[in-house]
Amino acid sequence: MVPGALVLMIVLWEGYKAIGPENGADVFGVRLIPRTSDRAMPHVVEMLRRFGRPEVGGGSSRTVFDAVFAATWYSFRVALLGLVLGVCFGLLIAMLMARFNLLRKGLMPYLIISQTVPLIALAPLTVSWGGRLKLGSFEWQKWMSAAMLSAFLAFFPVAVGAIRGFASPPAASLELMDSYAATWWQGFRKLRFPAALAYLMPAFKLAAAAAVVGVVVSEISIGLRFGIGRLILSYSQEATGDPAKVYTAVVGAAVLGLAMAALVSLVDRTLSKNRPAEAQA
Amino acid sequence: MKINRLSKGAVLLAVAGLAVAACGSDDTATPATTPTSGVAAAGCDASKAPATLTKVKLQLQWFTQAQFAGYFAAADQGCYAAEGLDVEIIEGGVEIVPQKQLADGQVDFALSWVPKALASREAGADIVDIAQIYQRSGTLQVSFKDKGIKTAADFKGKKIGNWGFGNEYEIFAALSKNGLDPATDVTLLAQQFDMAGLLSGDIDAAEAMTYNEYAQVLESKNEATGKLYTADDLNVVSYEAEGVGMLQDAIWADAKKLASDATYKETAVKFVKASIQGWIYCRDNAASCRDIVVAKGSKLGASHQLWQMNEVNKLVWPATGGIGVIDQAAWDRTAKIAQETKNLEGAAVLTKAPDAGAFTNDIVNEALQQLKDAGVDVTGSSFVPLTVELAEGGN
Q1: S-S: B44 plus which of A96, A178, A206, B82, CB 3.0-4.6 Å?
Q2: A contact residues 149-188, partner B, Cβ 8 Å cutoff
Q3: What ipTM is given for this predicted complex?
C-alpha cells in the first residue's frame, strides 16, 4: 500500500508539473492553478539529490539527509511522549466521565472548548508558565512544552472515543453484571473496557496524527531547536534560492507521521490478536 | 490467555518506555563561554573571570544568524566571562515575542525593534532601551529594474509586498510622505518570508532586509538566463535614505529592576560592555564572526552569513556617538512615525509619545567610558565594509 501510494504521489506531482501551466492560472482573479516552475515545484529527482548534498555549503557539514533524519527522530520522540501522555490523560478523563454522571454531563463542553484554543496562542504561554516552574534542580525545557501541546491535541480523540466505547455495552450486559453484584470497577474491567477497544483503536490513530501536528506546530511556534518543524521553517527561508531543500524537510515530516501511524497499528494488532469474539446466543 | 496479556503489556510498556527514555536525553544548546581563539583578538581576557559567574539570559528575535553575531562573538571570545557573566543566548520563534519574555521575567535582557517594543511598553510592559546597537534601519523595498521603482514616490500604482505584523510601518510612512494614499494609490500584498513573490512577478516591489531577503534574491538563478541575479537587475528603495527609517535591533532591559536593583544595573553595564566588545570584534573580523555563527548551528549558507555579517556591520558602524548610544533625533523620528502613521486598519503603533523612561543612555555611556578608557575604538569611524560575493543558494 505505502509504496503504491508513494509512486502515485510522484506520478501526480511530476505529471502535473509536465502538463500544468508554467505560471499557473487565475480563476476569477485568484490564483487557483498552482505554478509548475522549478522554483515552485522542484523535480522529485532534485529533492532526492538535495538529500545527498551538504546542509550548509562552504564548509564540511553533514548532509541534508543526516539533518532531516536527526530532526525527524527528535520530533518522533517528543511526539511519542505526547501521544503516550495524551492517551493516558484521555483514558483517565473518559473513565471518570463513565463513572460519574455529573462529570459526563458537565465536562464535555470543556473538552470541546479545549480543542478550539489555537495551539499557536497556547504554545508561547506554556513556555512562559514552564519557565516559572522550578522544582529543585528540575528546569522546564522547551521540548516539554512541545510534548505537552502534543498531548493536549492527542487526548481529545482518545477521550471522545473512550466515552463512546465505555458506554457501548448493551443494557442487557450491564444488567447481567449488576445481577452478579459486580462492583463498578469489575464491570469496567470485564465489560466496558473490552467493549471500548473497537472504539479506541481509530481514536488512537487520530491521536497519533494529532500528536505529530502538535509537535510540529509548537516547534515552529516556540522555535524549539532540533525538530523537523523547526527544520521546515529554517529551510523554507532559503526556498528562494534553494527550493528543493524545504521539500526534504517536508518529506521528513511525512515520514514522521507514517512512523507514528505504523506504531499505532502495531499496538492495535497486538491488542486485537486473540480478542475473544462475543459469543452469539 | 496469560501469555497474550503479558505480550500486550510488553508492547505498551515498551512504547511508553521508549517515549520516556527518548525525551530523557536533552540536547539543549549550551552557551559558549570558552574562547576558541586567543585573548588578544577581541581584547577580552576570560582568564580574569571570577570563579562564580552571574547567569544572564538574552532573548533573540529569531534563530541563530549573523544578525546577532555580536552576542555570539562576545560569548565565544570570552567577553562575557571576562565581565563575570555566563550568558545563555535563547533563540526566538514565530510566536516568541522577546520583549514579552523580558516583561514576564523569563529573561534578563531581550533584543527588539524599537517600534515593536514601544508598542508592548504602551500595553504595560515595563521595559527600557539600554543600548541601540543598530544605528539605522535595514529595511528595503526591492524591485526589478523594468518596473522603474527608484524612490518611494514611484510606488504609485504598483503592487507593494509587505510582511505585516508591524513590519509595514516604514512603507506606510514613506507612502504618506510622498502624498500617496495606501488604500487607493498602491496595491498592498501580503508577502511570505521568502522572495518567491518578487521572482514570480506577483509583487512589483518586495519588502526585504539588507542582510537577509535582499541577499536571497542575489542567490537565486534567473531562470531565463541561467545566471544569478545581480544588483544591476534590481532597484532598491532604502527607507533609511527615504528619511523614514525606524530604529531596529536594540537591547532592552527590565525598567523596574534597573531602577531598584543595583546588582541588576551593574550586570546591565557589564552585559552591554561585553556585547559591544563582541560587535567591535565582528566589525574587525567579519569572517571569523561568520564562522562563530555557523558553528552555533545556523542553517544558512556560508556566503549568505558573511553577506549578513557585512550588512549588519553597515547598520551598526560607523556609530558617530559611540555604538549603542541612542540618538535623540532618530528616536524621536521613530516615535513620531509610530504615532502618526496609520496602517490600512487605521491603527498606529502608538497612541501617544513614549515617556522619557523608554530609553536611557546611562548604561551604555558607562560601558563606553570603560572601553574608551581602555583605548578601544567605539565609533568605528574608519569602518570599511567588505565586498561579499554571494553564491547560489547562499552556499
Answers
A1: B82
A2: none
A3: 0.75
